[in-house]
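User:
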Amino acid sequence: MYRLLFSFLLLFYGRTVSAQFFPATEYPKNLFRDPLNIPISLAANFGELRANHYHMGLDIRTEHRENLPVFAAADGYVYRIKIEPFGFGQAIYIRHAGGYTTLYAHLNAFYPALAAWVKQKQYEKESWALTLEPPPGMFSVKKGDLIAYSGNRGGSQGPHLHFEIRTDPEDINLNPLLFGLPVQDNVAPVFRSMAVYDRNKSFYEQTPYFIPLKGRTGRYDIGRPVLVCKTANPGFGISGFDTQTGSKNPNGIYEGIIYDQGRAVSGFQMNRISYEQTRGINAHIDYPTHASGGPYYQLLFRMPGYTHSIYREAYPGAAIQLGDGQVHNIRIELFDAFGNKSILEFKVRYQPEGQTEKLFPGKMFYPGMTDGWEAPSAEFFLGPNCLYDSLHLNYQELAGQGQDGLSSIHQFGNSRVPLADTMTVRIKLTQFVKQKKKVLMQWTDGLDSEVRKPDWLGDWATASFRSFGNFSLVLDTVPPVIKIPGVAENANLQHSNRLVVLVQDNYKGIRNFRATLDGHWLLFTNDKAKAYLYQFDDHCPPGRHELNIYAEDEAGNSSTATLHFLK
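Assistant: Predicted structure:
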């Protein structure tokens, strides 16, 4: 009887500690409705891991279809509309009472009154991509009112509705699953494997130790009696996922907490993340391992330069210390937003081992410091918010490549180390160029590349980048190429419903696109930046017309094309 009571108290105490480690969050459970009229099935949840960002809302499946009606989740008014080629594509923001806003993205179309007003503003501003803020109350909505039709616009990879709940006016994203939306989930998160790190070393100058995990239905272990660590200050990362009842889709984990000898040390929770903070995912995951093709490992400790953090620590810099030589009982708990829990338990002890410290080339840089590297023809400057952990950054000057190259290739750092903020790159132009305004600064990493239009101070070009890699100056004098496929001069388009214009550039950067019909600006969309599309409407009445296209690249090279047609 005593043992049974003791076990019950121990179990109750463990649950109490788990629940209290993160402050309780209470949100209204009946304020928001399902924004669709079909059962919610999630393609992605809040906090799911993505390239350079957390997923900041719910991706709700639309049964592989587009143009499903989308409804206001609560009473309010439309306060912002955003249209862009990537990102949200077409999105509506609604402001609600109580300090909340909701966002609905990747939409195919707005409801008729709003769509007409948006189109009017696009013609007034002569811009397809824009952000608009209607006067408060101009487009008031009631809970359940039709506001849009679902789609696949912007950064979407397939038909779905992206839905967010934010605080107002702080604009901090909240986890929508904490608001009582009708989502069925009684499935606990899944552990896949564990990584062990040495927190006495730079995170980016070590090779972690990976351990496959065993178990299922909420209980897991490491498959050995004791884990022997070569460091007295280990950090742990977890690879795993969560699912929804009735779905095999691997979603993100809501919360993870690590315990040492029954005491909570640190953990993470996916809630209250702003878009200014979302790039911090690169300090929450093992970035080098994932960049090398490995899985996501979510760290259960906070990196030094992660200032806008999803972490909570028992005390500042909380860590598991094994220096006492004793066997420590470690427990890791993973939760979803509905309280379903999985547990990994194992024993660990420290066993020192003589090791030769590996020497890394380059200069040591630290998070929180402003520092730089200067070479005769290149300079790099890092601000205090650039690094998540200290490391050596090495510089090399390599021979330039290609007929457009105007400088050496300046290699700085390793692209498998993420930058939290932009660094400043300066490169000296070492040869005479008549058209300096046509010079671009280029970043390359393998097959990836980006160009920037630099600022000039004498012969020094300056631009900002958010990745380490290779940097050089290139001359771009090649104008974009404009094509109107399938349409000949003086074509009869009376039976066509749209025009397609393709614009190609050697450095893949179109800065400006403009179309006019009979001298008046014409609305072309540019979803996903793949093609420019015009849907025939009342801006092109029956008769003969002249279409003029202008395209300009990042270097300022421009092209024009003219098409005469009958409609």
